[in-house]
């Protein structure tokens, strides 16, 4: 993990996550998009730093329907280093030598639906303050 993950920005999760705390959670500090699972947050849990360009590519793949669990039976490589795959009952996200982040199918579906239907997880959305803050 990189120390910069604590500097600025607000961790955001999809409104579709509801009351559950176990979710795909991301934040943008203006330079890097940080990703973790709110069930296993930093500093104990794995956190991945993603360039804004790779994050936008990931969102494009989400909107194209290429990161659904059904499509992840074949792992998807984003930006040449971010590997997203289905590992049994979990979606996994790994960047080179960083520890793997695991998401349940429900957590992943809340992320997919929020990004696809609610315009969540865009860079401006990640920079904005949540309504409930």
Quick structural summary:
By secondary structure, the chain is an alpha+beta fold.
Instruction: Provide the β-strand percentage band.
Output: 25-35%
Poorly predicted runs: 1-5
Task: Classify the helix fraction into a percent range.
Answer: 10-25%
Structural class: alpha+beta
Q: Please provide the ordered H/E string of secondary-structure elements.
A: EEEEHEEEEHH
Q: Please, what is the oligomeric state? A: single chain
Radius of gyration: 13 Å
What profile does the largest beta sheet have?
Answer: 4 strands, antiparallel
Strand order of the largest sheet: 1-2-3-4
Distance between the terminal alpha carbons, to the nearest Å? Answer: 26 Å
Give the strand tally.
Answer: 8
State mean pLDDT (0 to 100 scale): 88
| Gross morphology | globular
The number of helical segments is 3
Descriptive report:
- The protein is an alpha+beta fold.
- The chain has 3 helices and 8 strands; from the N terminus they run ββββαββββαα.
- The radius of gyration is 13 Å and the shape is globular.
- It has helices at residues 52-63, 105-117, 123-127; strands spanning 12-13, 24-28, 33-37, 48-50, 76-78, 82-87, 90-95, 101-104.
- Strand 6 (82-87) and strand 7 form a beta hairpin.
- Helices cover 23% and strands 26% of the residues.
- The strands form 2 sheets. Strands 1-2-3-4 form a 4-stranded antiparallel sheet. It has a 4-stranded antiparallel sheet with strand order 5-6-7-8.
């Amino acid at each position: 993990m990189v120390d910069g993950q604590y500097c600025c920005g607000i961790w955001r999760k999809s409104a579709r996550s509801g009351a559950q705390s176990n979710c795909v959670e991301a934040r943008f500090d203006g330079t890097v998009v940080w990703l973790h699972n709110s069930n296993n947050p930093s500093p104990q849990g794995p956190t991945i730093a993603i360039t804004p360009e790779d994050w936008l590519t990931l969102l494009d793949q989400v909107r194209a329907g290429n990161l659904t669990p059904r499509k992840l039976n074949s792992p998807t490589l984003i930006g040449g280093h971010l590997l997203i795959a289905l590992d049994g009952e979990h979606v996994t996200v790994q960047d080179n030598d960083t520890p793997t982040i695991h998401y349940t199918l429900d957590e992943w579906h809340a992320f997919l639906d929020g990004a696809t239907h609610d315009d969540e997880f865009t860079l401006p959305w990640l920079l904005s303050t949540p309504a409930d803050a």
